[in-house]
Each structure stands twice: as structure tokens, then as C-alpha cells.
């Protein structure tokens, strides 16, 4: 696979995931309006921008990008093919702006972690600022085999990435950051060494080659490599003042602050059984259109006839319908043949998974307690700190689909916790209401009795008179 | 996810995690048993071939019966589930259900372990009872591969050890013309001799019993191969052997007539290496956390020494492992995370 | 003879004492926390407090189930809740009793603030106090606390309360 990034044409329609409530409360434009690329459609905490110019049609239900989720609400935009940008501000001088102003800019540009987590970057940075920033780590490790979106971007936009890193340093009020790049990415390392020398940034940006071992590119592993100490479980990096930002996130920050562009495109590695390439895609492009437009059908007719796609890399990805769309966190899409997976053998608890687990968990036990979900046991076994990196599944001699099972269990555990929380709240409120009603009932009763007795007294006194 | 596809993407996993299959793990175990098997043939003759043949044949019959029983129940379940079962042809169902039972090779490992744990030239009845108890009572009654709480081979051996005690005490002499007592028995029932006098006897070699020391050395070699191949971890064998060394050193008594034997003697007597590397390490029935494995190894070793020295049996691998298996849920409950 | 007897009693007694103490300690150390059945049942219910089951809330319904009452009276929970309750209680799962209403996804109540006249009727019926407002002042629904019980729809004299989809999938605890 070469490292050139191809620019994708805008598809006929883009579909942007939106929550019903957000759309209701923060919707900025009406259906039927002509919108330009980058214009704000939904405001609020999770802003949604039009990713190409065209007409905002309506809301439709389309397959969600999340695993096993019900179809989700999407805004559909019919593209006019011109892909015309909203007029953007010029002569920006970010170096004189305050951290708050820059953070607001990042938030309104809709920037989220582009390494796959899709957590709002502004929130992440703001949390780190609240807890006194200590480290900034720029993540260019991209260790998952078959995913090259970040590497391609590092080739194409090294200067912009460095500028983005400087902006992040300015926001966090730090002097130095670590730029971690996978050891296998020789040319990217070379480019950055040169660029750092050229721009005399060696005092600010420290280049760190990281061993090419999966999952060194995951946030927690990378922090362990860079700082030498492992994060305690259930602690977010930001709570210790550590920020880890992906190179493509920094590129988006650069675009938002220097060019006044919202996050509307991202680089995606697209695999078909025959070939693979890196494409800059409009967010919201359906995977089917992406494949059809970028791989002319006569070249690989059999591939497009499948109706499944794997979102994410070969280890961490999950399979879903080809009608699902590219989202902000999508790093890699892979066409999958419709094959029936090999049935898994029983677990023999051989422990290979426990040996390789980067978080020192015991996947064989997690598997046992995931089958009929045992909430207490899974919490005791620290399922929440599972990275769903997929290594356990790779080494499993019985070929048990562990990763997706753990991902499902994690979702369920979160939902159960939320339900329990809600249950506590509801019963407290019901109890409070009952007590209040009883009290007020009693007081009205006693008042009425008092009044009655007074009435009786006055009547009897009247009689006497 | 298909292992092969990930490898084609060039995933760097390191030497400890070559992708394997369950069947190939079992093949490695069978391969690692070979040196020990060979040593046993050498010292005890073809009686072991006879044991093995009966055990494997009984195992095959047992597997087929279990598979057929499972098939008929699953067929019933199918017919309950849908009025027109898809698999009308019984052969296809049978093939589907039997093949995993026969092909994951774990049952063959169990059969071989039972065959080599028994003394040579056992009657057909005893071997068959051992195999049926091992597979039926030890494994499939719990739901098959990966579900059992006791080591299947040791369940089989334990059943016949209790049911036919006199037959199982019949170990033939390693050298022609010697009495039938094994070195461990001689030590246990020694009549006022010091260890020095005892080991000078013809039944003893350089380290422990004549022949037995080489059999144990051969199993040690096989076990080291398994550790090298990352099929088993090193914790259980090392801590098991360490606890035996500690116990026997504490009761060695400088080789007096009351001595319970030297650490070296204990390490190379009876089935200790077979137990440490092939039986106690059964992943299904040992704890999953590293610390749990350490406790398990220590517990096994201590029980082996206690049964050998003060129990009713000359060697105690089977009961020690079974008792330790009993404690595994508790160990797993206490140490359920590798931190 | 007596000595042997006594020593046997002594040894066995010591072992029994020791084992008993160990078991007692283990029981204390690893105590399973038992919840009252009513609490477990209540957690399995969707907790809308909608009273469609005929009881004044979810807790009374859970109480009645714990005392042996029918488990198929909860329309918001639907078959899912029935299955979980059946699993928990070891009863046969039955179909939803349609007399109590039909299963529908859970919504969120929203007050159209332009037409609200401030009558406080909805405030009085809300089982979870999720509506705030005062006499002749506009009312509003606290979204985080609304359970979608639909009890506020009926008393509203101007029909200004509507139900919307929440996007939030209710989940039920494992049985």
C-alpha cells in the first residue's frame, strides 16, 4: 500500500449521525435549506457540521456505527457536487489568543479524538488543565497492522501536525511534548527529524521512536512507555494531567485554528480483498459509496457484491452493514466476504490470552463470566480496563471471538450501572414524594378537624345564647 | 477473526504467542510424553504397550458412545426446536458432533496419562474402568472439554486405585530377581535401616530408585520442552518441586533410619515429574492467575509429600492433585487478577 | 482405653473447632450480600412508576410479585421483563396481560411551554416529581428525572404535554 492520500469526491448523499434530542434542541437550520461545507447544522456540546455543500433533506434511520446498536438517526444532505466551503475567517493570529479562546474554537469545530476513541478533544484538554497539565504525548504510533491512515497523514502534513502540537502546548501551557512514532515508520521518523531541525523545535518537541509492538499505540500503553509508570486502573490520563493526542487530531486542531475549518473530512484506510489505499473522505459518506467511487466496479466486481464491512483494524474492528457511514472515529474500513465464521472450540483455559493481555487481565475468566453475564464477577475481574485490543482473540487456540464479546459486556455493564443509578434516583424521589404527600395529607386533615371543632364550638355557643 | 489473516498483515506478537490450535497444543503434550514413555518401555517392557493399546481402544469406544449420546440428545433438542429438523440424515449430525470430540486430541492425552500412570500389564477390566471413569466421570459429566473441575486422568486413576488396591500395587521389579517393592515403598516400610544402607541396595541407582530416576528425568525433559514451547507455564512445576524439596529437606533427618528420604530422592521417585509437568499443569483444572498458580503448585507439592510420608499410599500424585483441584475455585476467588 | 477415647475426642474436637472457626471466618470474610427479594425484583422492572399494572408504583408491584402475584402486568417492560422475572423466580414465562396496556417504547414527556396555563394538575400526578412550576406560571419537565409514565397526559386541560422519543435505550438488569 502506498502512502499517498487520495481525495475522495463528495458522495451523492452524506448521512451525519445526530441525537434526536440534540437535533430538537440545538438544530440550527431547517429541512430544505441549502448548506455549505462546514456550516453548523446542530450546535451544543457535540456540534455537527455539513461535510459537503448541498441541501439538507431530512432525518433518516441508518445503521449506526456502533457495534450491535439499533439503527440511529442521521441527517441526510443531498450533495450538489461542488463541495463548496463556507467563507472562512482570514488573518488569524492564534499565538496571541488565550487558551480558553482556543479551546472554544476546538469545541465549536467539532474536533474529537481521531485515533478511534472519538472523545471530544476540548473536554479532554480542559480536564487536563483542571488537573494541572504535566505531559503532552503526540501519538503517531499506529501499531495496528493494516491501518495506515495516520502514517499517510504524517507524510503529507508533517508541518501542520507540528503546528498543531505547538498549539496544544500553548493551550496546556507546557514547554515540551513527546512525539511518539512507531519504529517501523522509517520515512515518517526521518521527515519529522528533518522538520524539527529545520524549524528549530527540538527544544519543544522530543521525537521518541516506539517499538513496533501491538498495542503500543493505545493511550494507556503509550503513557506507560513515555512516562515509565503505568496508569492505575479506573483513572483517566487527563486526571493526572496527561494528554495524549493523535496526530490526525492535531492536524484537525491546526485546520480549525489556522484555517477556521470545522472537522468535515478525515483520512481512512480502505481495504478491499484486492487492494488498499488511504483516502481523505467526507465524514458521513456511506461505506458502500466509498467503495464504489474509489474502486471502479469492473476492477473488482466480486468485492462490492458483499454487504458487510469491518470498521476499525483487523484486531479491534467489528463487522457491520456496508450501509453504515464513515464517522469521525473511523480509521479503517475493510470489505469482508460473507463467510460463516469457524465455530469456536471450548475454552481450555490454556492461559495464552492472560500471558499476552497488555492490561494483565485474565481473558479466560472474563470469557467464562461473560457467557451468562455475571456483573459482580466481571467488575471484580476489572473488565472495564479491557482495551478490546484483540490480542487475546488472536492467540486463542480455540478461536473464540473474545474481543467483541468483551466489548458487548462492557457496554452492558455500563448500561446496568446507569440503570442502577437511575433506579436509586427514582426510588428516592418516589419515597420523598410519598412522605411529602403523607405529611401534607395529615396537616390538611388536622387543619380540617381544627376548623370543624371550632365551628362546632361556635355553633354550640350560639345555641346557648 | 482468522489468525492467518492477521498474520498476513504482519502482526508482531513476540515468541511467546505463536498462534496455535487446541489440537496442536494437545499434540505437543503427546510429543512431550514420548521420552518418558520410552523410558517406561525400557524398564518395564511391553506391558506398557499393552496398557496403551487397551486404554486407547477403550477411549475410542468411550468417545464414540459419548458422542452418540450427545448427538441423540441434540437431535431431540433440534426436533423440539423446529418441526422440520434441517439435518434429517443422522450421519451428518453424527459427523458434526463426533468430530470435535475425537479431533481436539485432549481425550487421547487423558488416555495416555491413565495408561502410563497404571502399573504395566493391567487387566483389561481395570484399564477400561479407569478410562471410562476418566472420560465419563472426570470430564463429560461436567459438559466436556474445558468444563471439568478435576483432572480427568487422575479421576480415572483414583477410581481404580481405590477399587483395585492390590492390583495397582503390583509394580514389577526394574531388574530381574528383585522384590516387587518400589523404592518409595522400601523407604516407607524400611526396617530400621539408615538411608545410606537403604540406597546401597540393588534397587537404588545414583539419585533414586534404579530405573525410576531415568523415567523421571525423561519426563522432566518432556516438561522442559513444553515450557520452552509455551504450552505450559513454569510456575506450577517450579513451585511444586520447590515445596517437595523444602518438605523433604525439613524431614531428611540427615539420613537416619527415621528419615523420610533426601530431596533428590523425592524429586526422582514415583511419578513426581509426570505429575509436576503433565498433570498439575492441566490448564482446565488449575487457577488462572499467576499468584493462584503459585499457591496451587505449593499446595500440590505439600500434599504429595504428606501423602507419601504419612498417608496410606506410597505415592500421592493423584490424590494430591485432586485435592488441590478442589481448592481451585477458592484460589480463583481470592486471586482473580494479575496485578 | 479411656485415654484412647479421650485423646480421640480431644483430637477430633480440636479439628472440629478449628474447621468451624475457619469456616466462620471465611463466611464473614467472603459474605454474599443478600438483598431482599423485593429489591431484586424492583431492579428488574423498568421503573417508570406508570401504575399501569394497577399498583400505585413499581415498588408495590414488586411487593406483590414477591408475595406470589402475577408477573405479566408491566406493559413498559414487555416480554423482556417478564422473561427476566420468570428466570429470577423460577416461574413459567407468560405473555403480557393486555388488559393492563400494550408494550411500547419508553418516551419522554415534553411540555409545550407556549400553551401551558400553569394549572399544576400535572405536577400533582407526577410520581417522581419531575415537573416543576407554580400556579399560573409555566411548567417544565426535568428530562433527567422523567420516566415516561404518561400519567401527566390525562389531567392536562389544554393537552400541551406530548411524548417524544428519547434515543435512550432502556436496559434491564440481568436476572
Descriptive report:
The complex is a heterotrimer of chains A (465), B (339) and C (175). Chain A has helices spanning 20-26, 99-108, 121-130, 149-156, 158-172, 186-198, 219-227, 247-258, 287-294, 301-304, 352-356, 363-370, 375-380, 391-395, 402-464, and strands spanning 5-7, 13-17, 34-35, 40-42, 48-49, 54-62, 72-79, 135-140, 177-182, 205-210, 242-246, 265-271, 276-282, 308-311, 318-321, 332-336. The N and C termini of chain A lie far apart (111 Å). Chain A is α/β, with parallel strands linked by helices and 465 residues long. In chain A, strands 1-13-12-16-14-15 form a six-stranded mixed sheet, with helices on both faces. A four-stranded antiparallel sheet of chain A has the order 2-7-6-3, with no helix packed on it. Chain A has a four-stranded parallel sheet with strand order 10-9-8-11, sandwiched between helices. By secondary structure, chain B is mainly alpha-helical. Chain B folds into two domains: 1-14 and 181-339, no CATH class; 46-171, no CATH class. Chain B has helices at residues 3-8, 22-44, 47-81, 90-103, 106-117, 124-137, 152-163, 165-168, 183-188, 195-199, 212-228, 235-250, 263-267, 272-279, 290-310, 317-334. Residues 1-9 and 77-96 of chain B have low confidence and may be disordered. Chains in contact: A-B, A-C. The interface between A and B is large, with 39 and 39 residues.
